[in-house]
Design brief:
The protein is an all-alpha fold. It has two helices and no strands.
């Protein structure tokens, strides 16, 4: 979360309160409860947006960690498979050599 996000949330709350006050003052019917609820509504909306941004950042960090783990595990798996295949191919090479020796006798 950046300070810019907090600043924009504060500006959003302030502008909602001022807009509500000006709108109600046009009709000479300024009501503190309406202004408070406008404040509460915009404050909760700003908090929701910041919460969503923080959640998205946390998900991106988890994704990056998962990507690193998969890369490390795939390297390990590749080495193990390469060792098993090499052992199998070595056995096949020995069998082929024996078969070639029998054929040329």
């Amino acid at each position: 979360m950046e300070s810019r996000d907090v600043g924009l949330a504060i500006l959003m709350v302030f502008s909602a309160v001022m807009l509500t006050y000006k709108w109600l003052s046009l009709y000479d019917n300024v009501d503190a409860a309406v202004i408070f609820f406008a404040f509460l509504l915009t404050f909760s909306l700003g908090a929701l947006l910041i919460s969503i941004e923080l959640r998205m950042q946390r998900i991106m960090e988890e994704f990056e960690n998962t990507k690193r783990v998969i890369a490390a595990n795939s390297y390990d798996l590749e080495e193990r498979l390469e060792g098993k295949i090499a052992a199998y191919v070595e056995g096949l090479d020995e069998r082929l050599d024996r078969m070639e020796k029998r054929m040329y006798r």
